[in-house]
Amino acid sequence: MYCSGCGQLIPPSQQFCTNCGRSVPATAAPASWIPTRVHRHIQALSILWIAYAVWTLFGWLITMSVFGGFFGGYFGHWNHGPWGEYPFGHISWMIPFISAILIGRAILSAITGLALVYRRPWGRILAIVAAFLTILRPITGTALAIYTLWVLLPGPSAQEYDQLAQP
Questions:
Q1: What is the pLDDT of residue 14?
Q2: Which SS3 state, helix, strand or coil, does residue 3 take?
Q3: Secondary structure (3-state) at 10
Q4: Coil, helix or strand for 2?
Q5: pTM, full prediction
Q6: Distance separating alpha carbons of residues 142 and 25, to the nearest angstrom
Q7: Fewest CB atoms within 10 Å of the CB: 49, 66, 73, 76?
Q8: In 118-139, where does DSSP find H-type helix?
Q9: Residue of 133, 131, 157 whose CA lies nearest to 144
Q10: CA dist list (Å): 30 to 23, 27, 69
Q11: Contact at 8 Å (CB) between 144 and 49?
């Protein structure tokens, strides 16, 4: 720091200039940054949304492999029973329909997680909408939805997220 009167270099510990005697104004200590609740939880929340997308697809793949092996001709010529040759032949549209819904949910979850990772301005609203759509999904979906709503739904969270968000 330099003296405002004579321009002499003043060490930080001195209160007066040794050359002209002028008092040195006290420097304000840098404000310590206190992380907000949104800042503390946003990284974990984004990772959990991406993991939930993977978990949804993984669960459906396991379910499809079990059903494919259980009902799809796995038992060879003994695959006869009260349902006929294919047990669920009359509702064959259901598997692609459920697959489309689960793939859509996984895509929504992945986009939500990526929006939170990259701090997109629309990421908070998308996460809240995704949380409300996921809240009825037992255990993992409900826990993730409650955590998301707890972090992002309160009014001050909008201001905190806007400070973190990239334009």
A1: 81
A2: coil
A3: coil
A4: strand
A5: 0.70
A6: 56
A7: 76
A8: 123-134
A9: 131
A10: 21, 9, 65
A11: yes
